[in-house]
Request: fold
Amino acid sequence: MVNQISSSHNTIRSGDSTQPDRIAQQQPVAAVSRVTEKKSRQEQQQSGLNGQPRSLLTQTTLAHNQAAQAQTAQRALRDASDLLNQLRQTARRSLNAQEGKRDQLQQSLHQLKNKLSKLTREAKYQDEPVLHHDLTPRLSGEQQQETFGIKGLRLNTLRNQDEIIRFQFESGSPATVRTMIELDETNQEVAQKFDRALSPRGIQVAVDKFGDLAFTVDKAEWPNLRKGVWLTGGGQILPSGSPIKAKLESHDKQAVSPDELSFAKPQQVRKSLADIERMLQKVQQALSQIDNVQKQVSADLERVVRTNSLKSGVINAQGDIEASWLEAPQDVSLQLIENAVPTLLAQANATRHNVVALLEP
Reply:
């Protein structure tokens, strides 16, 4: 179609010698500015519902995806809340049940725990999980981290020689990380060395307010990290000889994973009941957080639609072509379209609707 437009503009057909006169007699067309080229896909991905230039379709699609993701997480959290309430009731009954009935209730507790663990792992939106291991919402645009310590690191002991520390990981890569700690290095210097050594694993290391090492990792990686970290030292900071499995302790004492619940013995049931109460509180906080996210997405979407409501036409009040949504075929330049539009408007007295139809590839 565009090739035909260009031909009619530059070439006079034989047998139609009056065509130049007809074109000359038509009313002049208001000056049309150059068509605004569409932004690259990378630029569009970098801008969101935050006032950055972006097509209406892209912004509304993003908003709807965010809302759908939040809604999926909301449903999963409500299901988790139901399972936690069932676990709480069943656990309380098991503490006062007779021996035969207690075995039956423990089996029910095990089944409910497995359902909760499965829900936490498998609740997804577009193949992406919407819950973290501790039932924290896992929403796009939110980067959450887990801070933890390693029990048994003896940084404050007297060191009389350098020591090589090795980290071996059960999963992921690199599988082994090592660094050498010099005998006279401070805790801050040790933290900096650990930080550099563990950076390929996405682990950051710093000294906390108590003078201990604090390790930080992306929350999504925390379950993989907990599968196993094995440590070897030189007998000062860490024991020498065979690797020992590190005990990783989260700094978030309120965070509990469903996999950590245990109901084998009465004391374990009591501890799990306290953990269930904390998990229920976290779920309620998460539901409130999601409500706020949905309200914000709704407000952003309303603002985007309102801002773009006056830009849905082809030509604005100043006579400029509003074509940020226009993407020309690869073999057609925007300059060609720019040259063709004034002629089309003059010859056909085109309406906005007709111009859009003509410009479609």
